[in-house]
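Subgroup meeting minutes
Present: P.N., E.W., G.H.
Scribe: E.W.

1. P.N. recapped why we're keeping a running log of single-chain structure predictions: easier to compare across weeks, and new members can see raw inputs and outputs side by side.
2. G.H. added today's entry (97 aa).
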Amino acid sequence: MHLKGKTAEDLLCEFKSVVRGTRKNKAALILDCVQNDGDTHRDFQASRDFIVQSLARCLENQKEELSFIDAEIKRMLQHFPTSSQHFRVSMLLQPPN
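Output recorded in log:
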C-alpha cells in the first residue's frame, strides 16, 4: 500500500534519507519486484503492518543502543593494556613446560 502510485524517483528520495548510495535503478528494481509480487494484502493487514513497523522501530532502537555500548566498551578498553602488552604479561605468567 505504501508504494502504490510511487515512482522510482519517489522511492529513491525516501531511501536517500536512510541508505546512502542508493541508485535509481535499485529503487526501480524494488518497485518492479513489488508489482510482480501481486496483491499481498491479507486479513488483518493493518495489524500485520503495525507489528512489522513496531519490530523495525525496536531494531532501530537496539542498533542505537549497541552503538552506545560500543562507545562505552572503547572507553573502558583505554584503561587496559594493549594486546601486545597483555600477551607479554600472559607469557610471563605461564608455567614452564
